[in-house]
Write a structure and sequence with these properties.
- This protein is mainly alpha-helical.
- It contains 20 helices and no strands.
- The chain has one domain: Sodium:dicarboxylate symporter (Proton glutamate symport protein).
- The two termini are 28 Å apart.
- It is a multi-pass membrane protein.
- InterPro entries: Na-dicarboxylate_symporter (IPR001991), Na-dicarboxylate_symporter_CS (IPR018107), Na:dicarbo_symporter_sf (IPR036458).
- Keywords: Cell membrane, Membrane, Symport, Transmembrane, Transmembrane helix, Transport.
Amino acid sequence: MKKKKLSLSAKVFIGFGLGIILGIIFKEKILIIKPVGDIFLRLIKMIVVPLIFFSIAAGVCSIGDMQKLKRIGSKTLIYYLLTTALAGAISLTLANIIGPGRGLSAEEIVGTGMVYEATAAPTIGDTILGMVPDNIFTAFTTANLMQIIVFSLFVGIAIIIMGDKGVKVRNFFESGSDVMYTITGMVMETSPYGVTALIACSVGAYGMKIFGPLAIFIGTVYLCLISVVIMYAAMLKLIGKASIKQFFRKIPELWLVTASTTSSSGSLPVTLNVTKNKFGVDEDLGNFTLPLGATMNMNGGVCFYAASVIFVSQIYGIELSITQQIMTVLMATLVSVGAPGIPGGAIVMSTMLLTTMGLPLDVVGMIAGIFRIIDMGTTTMNVTGDVVSTICIARGENMIDDKIYNDSMAKSTIGVN
């Protein structure tokens, strides 16, 4: 009798649990295996830029019809902006009700950690201008994903306009996309080891220390994230016309990766595979919407931003007016669009938001010390939002295979081309 091979997703799950156990047992000593996790993250970063470039260009030109491209593009932007704004409004409401900063003083919270200097918040004009590259080579070398996406969109549109003359170029990008998926599969084979090391080091470094004065704040952020999950479920049921049960049966495979990498961009290879092979979304659509979502759809991040503003304002006894709180939601949405989909990117962006609202930055250093715990949840919700919005768009465009979506025996997708 042939022995059944353990799937890669099962190995990742085992690695996740093993990492927690190792972190609890060895504590800070487990940091000796940190290079293993760092190598895994470097491998992921290595493939992100070319993967986005080839997948978006190939995805755009595969759509073929300019009118269809405009329709899908406008839907994508609307979904991402609206869901981000809604997540921010929900989180702001919950944070006001819970009051994570009530009863706390700045002296109890401010630590001796890293100091973050205030950074001017970007205006809408600055955000839009920052999306357009003035030197595409600089965009690639600095991994400015939004600028790379904009350039990729131009490349894909140009190929469509060229018609028959662009066939060879189109074939080049489609082949390049296939090559990147193959490399992705190779990299993801190392994920069980990377996940084990990343989780072990996180648990070993922080342990139970996080359950101090910041415990209520952490709990508030996670409650906000849970409320966003409810919003996702409603979207799937009402707009996506899809089984909620099947979705939450299959999505944890992706969550293991997002929680360990804490990077929307770094999780992109797995997000693309899960959306295609687990949920039956047309590959061309996923290649277009998901890389965009990894850089501008930060539903989880906006939960953190909204909770942070309320947390800091309550610690310092600063009353925010209704107008200021509405401005917080709008600014949080804007900031989340410009936030890099990389580990810890939200910390930098939160300083912009706090500065704009006229709030002190002293607490940010302490939050940064335990941000990895928060980032595991916010990144997971960011990426989940990308998948849910893509499923909803796919339903409207008739670009989803219900047989695959409803197949409870669908194959593991981590590392599958």
